[in-house]
């Protein structure tokens, strides 16, 4: 029986307390509470559409500015993903998805290459969606990709409603990660001509 692919991370600073648990071979269970309703809503798309099990508990000084909390949740997610992937043996490695939500259509591509990078082309018309500053969505995704050591490209193809744009992006990210982390028994080893995905 293959070992469980799980990651567990705690991050505590003077500004935030974040705990993330992730099981890549789960059934899509979500238990997420950050104190920012729209962030919770977006993060709940990840387990739902990747079939990971994800638990997040986060708190911080969101009344002053939610910047640090949103960033640190991305850091925690990335570190949990990297831990769960281990040496990344047998994974498909790359995945992509194009997801619609009403008038919005978003493309996401990922490569679990061991190198963290994010290009996010996700323009918003408003400064906030609920309590979530829209400028922090790209920053959160960058933190996730850098700490998770994967390449991430997000591109809005069309859309006018900011809620729909953001939600389509997180659904597409979930689908892409679900595909990229899948084990293919034909691969067997690390899917790289270098022989490693450590960066």
Characterization of the model:
The protein has four helices and ten strands. It has a four-stranded mixed β-sheet with strand order 1-2-4-3, covered by helices on one side. The model has no long low-confidence stretch (mean pLDDT 93). Strand 5 and strand 6 form a beta hairpin. It is of the alpha+beta class. The chain has one domain: Ribosomal Protein S5, domain 2 (2-Layer Sandwich). The two termini are 28 Å apart. 46% of the residues are buried. Helix 1 packs parallel to helix 4.
Describe the SSE topology.
Blueprint: E1 6-12, E2 16-23, E3 30-33, H1 37-50, E4 53-60, H2 67-85, E5 94-101, E6 104-111, E7 117-121, E8 128-129, E9 132-133, H3 135-148, E10 151-158, H4 162-180
Parallel strand pairs: 3-4, 7-10
Antiparallel strand pairs: 1-2, 2-4, 5-6, 6-10, 8-9
Helix pairs in contact: 1-4, 2-3
Summarize the structure.
By secondary structure, the chain is α+β, with helices and mostly antiparallel strands. Helices cover 33% and strands 30% of the residues.
CATH domain class name:
Alpha Beta
Report the structural category: alpha+beta
Number of strands: 10
List unreliable stretches of 5+ residues.
none
Number of helices: 4
Spell out the key features of this protein.
30% strand; four-stranded mixed beta sheet; alpha+beta; 199 residues; globular; Ribosomal Protein S5, domain 2; single chain
């Amino acid at each position: 029986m293959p070992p469980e692919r799980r990651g567990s991370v705690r991050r505590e600073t003077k500004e935030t307390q974040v705990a993330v648990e992730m099981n890549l071979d789960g059934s899509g269970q979500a238990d997420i509470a950050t104190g920012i309703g729209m962030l919770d809503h977006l993060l709940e798309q990840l387990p739902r559409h990747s079939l990971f099990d994800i638990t997040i508990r986060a708190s911080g000084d969101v009344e002053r500015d939610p910047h640090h909390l949103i960033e640190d949740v991305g850091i925690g997610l990335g570190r949990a993903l990297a831990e769960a992937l281990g040496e990344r043996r047998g994974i498909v490695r790359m995945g992509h998805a194009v997801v619609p939500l009403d008038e919005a259509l978003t493309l996401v591509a990922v490569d679990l290459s061991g190198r963290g990078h994010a290009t996010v082309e996700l323009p918003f018309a408003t400064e906030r969606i609920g309590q979530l500053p829209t400028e922090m969505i790209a920053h959160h995704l960058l933190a996730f990709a850098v700490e998770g050591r994967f390449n991430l490209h997000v591109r809005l193809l069309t859309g006018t409603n900011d809620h729909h744009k953001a939600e389509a992006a997180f659904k597409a990210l979930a689908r892409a990660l679900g595909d990229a982390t899948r084990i293919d028994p034909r691969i067997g080893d690390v899917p790289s001509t270098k022989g490693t995905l450590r960066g």
